[in-house]
Design brief:
It is a single chain. The protein has 69 residues and is mainly alpha-helical. It folds into 2 domains: 35 residues, no CATH class; 33 residues. It has 4 helices and no strands. α2 packs across α3 and α3 runs antiparallel to α4. The radius of gyration is 16 Å and the shape is elongated.
Length: 69
């Protein structure tokens, strides 16, 4: 895939999302988070309060440890 195609695709996606209503974007994000657990975890980690980030970080570390066992 060429770099120009990637840039154009991103620009088009940005334009499309910019034209949507806030409720539509929220619905899209929630649908993606429901389908892909990694997206949900990433969004919660990035946009949660500091207390929530610490709690979620501990949870992610424990999950990672148990997956290795």
């Amino acid at each position: 895939m060429s770099e120009q195609f990637t840039v154009d695709k991103e620009k088009n996606l940005k334009q499309i999302l910019s034209a949507l209503k806030k409720e539509e974007i929220i619905s899209i994000v929630l649908d993606l988070a429901q389908e892909y657990e990694e997206i949900e975890k990433g969004l919660l980690f990035k946009y949660s309060s500091n207390d929530d980030v610490l709690s979620n970080s501990k949870k992610l570390i424990k999950e990672g440890i148990y997956q290795k066992i």
